[in-house]
């Protein structure tokens, strides 16, 4: 995903300074036991795996942004979007919002009484999909979590607090916590919950995160952490946004053997459009971990000439939706025909859930979306 504003630039223009850290600073501050590459972790061997997002949740975790050094004059709009998303999800399941002590009152006022705001886990920014823990279940009442050694998307943003969020949330939730053998973010890997992962090479096989790891080593580490056995790789796009092209902006698993890809207009031919078409082609000709073909639905993206935002770096991703108990929370962008079509497609794909579309233009202007600012805790 293409998230967050750096100075006056958004995640597709991250090269302005936003307080970059020294390489590896986040890694040094993250505790936990690393998974060994090349073999399943003890937890994975014991039956733990990351379920698909569609399973029932205990709660949703979010984080309250408050740094003008990151967001500048866009901060109030982003905070309003975060509050709107939190209040909407809270209609369907509990929401816990992390906020710095100085911002608790403002977060509580904006989010209302339906959202639980806590001050014991400090944050740098709102992208808890990337900074938070990834929870796993074992099908027998067990729950644990792991962190992916968050390093500010390759040391592009200061992250001293965010580097510790995963372990601290796991501790607050009372579950065992480990760290992976690789550096990444939650938004960089999609799982079907049944052994198949997908990711972009640009984000993970990248010297700014894993300079000494081969694709085979990364696959071993990813499969060990997620309890999976197969990774479907997309080439992706390096150096054009802060995440180096997270998969969850474009391609998502619906369940085992089913996925979707957000497609560009036929007339769109920029690098992002070509990337989406390549992801669709690869995914639609791939098989799952069980060897079955993957059924891929096309989710049509909007016409950028018809959306509300005039920001050339705006990210209009319907695919960056969040599935919670009984609902799918997605964005709408002002292209009324495309918005309605996307809602209809999602409703068809999730027939047992309410599809809710929100105006999250401030997040989109920062290059992110609803999935990027949420992290689910599944029921054990």
Class by alpha and beta content = alpha/beta
Taken in chain order, the helices and strands follow as: HEHEHHEHEHEEHHEEEHHEEEHEEEHEHE
Oligomer: single chain
Biggest sheet record: 4 strands, mixed
Share in helix: 25-40%
Question: Any descriptors?
Answer:
single chain; 380 residues; alpha/beta; L-arginine/glycine Amidinotransferase, Chain A; four-stranded mixed sheet; 13 helices; 17 strands; globular; disordered N terminus
Structure description:
With 380 residues, the protein is α/β, with parallel strands linked by helices. It has one domain (11-38, 48-378): L-arginine/glycine Amidinotransferase, Chain A (5-stranded Propeller). The chain contains 13 helices and 17 strands. It has helices spanning 25-29, 42-45, 68-71, 75-89, 104-111, 128-131, 152-155, 165-173, 201-204, 215-226, 271-284, 336-349, 361-365, and strands at residues 33-34, 57-63, 95-98, 116-118, 134-137, 143-147, 176-179, 189-191, 196-200, 230-234, 251-255, 258-263, 295-300, 322-324, 327-332, 354-359, 375-378. The strands form 5 sheets. Strands 1-7-6-5 form a 4-stranded mixed β-sheet, covered by helices on one side. It is globular, with a radius of gyration of 19 Å. The relative contact order is 0.18.
Kindly summarize this structure in a few lines:
The chain is an alpha/beta fold and 380 residues long. Strand 11 and strand 12 form a beta hairpin.
Lay out the secondary structure.
Layout: H1 25-29, E1 33-34, H2 42-45, E2 57-63, H3 68-71, H4 75-89, E3 95-98, H5 104-111, E4 116-118, H6 128-131, E5 134-137, E6 143-147, H7 152-155, H8 165-173, E7 176-179, E8 189-191, E9 196-200, H9 201-204, H10 215-226, E10 230-234, E11 251-255, E12 258-263, H11 271-284, E13 295-300, E14 322-324, E15 327-332, H12 336-349, E16 354-359, H13 361-365, E17 375-378
Parallel strand pairs: 1-7, 2-3, 3-4, 6-7, 9-10, 12-13, 15-16
Antiparallel strand pairs: 2-17, 5-6, 8-9, 11-12, 14-15
């Amino acid at each position: 995903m293409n998230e967050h504003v750096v100075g006056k630039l958004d995640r597709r223009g991250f090269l302005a300074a936003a307080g970059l850290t020294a390489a590896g600073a986040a890694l040094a501050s993250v505790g936990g036991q690393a998974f060994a590459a090349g073999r399943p972790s003890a937890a994975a061997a014991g039956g733990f795996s990351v379920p698909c997002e569609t399973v029932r949740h205990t709660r949703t975790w979010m984080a309250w942004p408050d740094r003008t050094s990151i967001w500048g004059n866009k901060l109030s709009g982003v905070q309003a979007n975060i509050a709107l998303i939190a209040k909407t999800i809270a209609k369907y399941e509990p929401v816990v919002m992390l906020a710095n002590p100085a911002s608790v009152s403002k977060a509580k006022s904006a989010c209302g009484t339906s959202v639980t705001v806590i001050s014991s886990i400090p944050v740098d920014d709102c992208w808890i999909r990337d900074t938070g823990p990834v929870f796993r279940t074992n099908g027998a009442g067990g729950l644990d979590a792991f962190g992916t050694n968050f390093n500010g998307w390759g040391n592009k943003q200061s992250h001293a607090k965010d580097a510790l969020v995963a372990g601290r949330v796991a501790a607050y939730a009372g579950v065992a916590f480990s760290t992976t053998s690789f550096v990444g973010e939650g938004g960089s890997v999609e799982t079907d919950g049944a052994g198949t992962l997908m990711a972009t090479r640009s984000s993970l096989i990248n010297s700014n995160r894993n300079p000494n790891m081969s694709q085979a080593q990364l696959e071993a580490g990813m499969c060990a952490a997620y309890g999976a056995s197969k990774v479907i790789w997309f080439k992706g796009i390096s150096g054009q946004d802060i995440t180096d092209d997270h998969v969850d902006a474009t391609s998502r698993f619906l369940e085992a053997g089913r996925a979707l890809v957000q497609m560009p207009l036929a007339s769109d031919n920029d690098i992002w459009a070509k990337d989406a078409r390549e992801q669709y082609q690869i995914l639609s000709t791939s098989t799952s971990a069980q060897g079955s073909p993957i059924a891929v639905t096309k989710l049509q993206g909007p016409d950028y000439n018809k959306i509300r935002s005039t920001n050339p770096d705006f990210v209009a991703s319907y695919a960056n939706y969040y599935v919670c108990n009984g609902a799918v929370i997605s964005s709408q962008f002002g292209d009324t025909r495309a918005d309605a079509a996307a809602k209809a497609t999602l409703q068809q794909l999730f027939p047992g859930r309410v599809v809710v579309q929100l105006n999250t233009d401030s997040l989109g202007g920062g290059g992110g979306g609803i999935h990027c600012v949420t992290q689910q805790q599944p029921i054990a």
